[in-house]
Amino acid sequence: MDAVALQHVKKSYTSYSSEIVITGQTRQSRTRQVLRDLSVRFPIGQLTVIVGRSGCGKSTLLKLLAGKEQPDAGQIDMPQGWHSALLSPDPYVITWTNVQRNVAMACGVGKTPEERYEKAADFVRLVGLQDYADLTPAELKERGYAGMDYRNTILKANEHWVAEAHALGLEVNVWTVNTREEMEYFLNLGVDYITTDEPELLQALIRERSGK
Question: pLDDT-derived band of residue 22, with 50, 70 and 90 as boundaries?
Fold first, then answer.
């Protein structure tokens, strides 16, 4: 199979006038069909841009492709072994971290944090945003960010960034730190936050350092 294919896909949403229903009363509803008998193919190896007015079904289509929602009717076919991911445009995307890590959040199927980050680099280059992937504290401050958020290898190679960030009033998060040795290293470096897959180990180390 050489494409992601949708065949006769339909999707509707029903909204209700109230969340509270008095006994014996009928709750008014409104059903709107967002996608109607949609058939389209997205060829492998090509960049596809979906353009349309607000409410025309762009986000619904992406959610269906990402498996976050299911169609009411029709069929969606993916090439064998393929996965899809959706990077949400909503405000809960981390606004004060770098471009590459935001993209990495949507590259996580079956990959380690390091593999996701490297894969994200390919997509960042694809759209010409590589110059914004890893900014210095001064550059982040100039662009109005409230903090910096980098993987451990970047901060190890740029230890001075932590002190520079604090001098500029920026908070510092480092990821993904999973060994006691690295946790101690970054705690001694003075980072504000540590992202880890071993929270109990980190909590125990913090308690130990505080004498509790």
Answer: low
- List the structure tokens of 42: 């997205």
- Report if pTM > 0.85: no
The letter for the amino acid at 205 is L
* pLDDT tens-digit map of 84-124: 777 665 545 565 566 777 788 777 667 788 888 888 888 88
**44-54 core/surface letters (b: 16 or more CB in 10 A; e: else):** eeeeeeeeeee
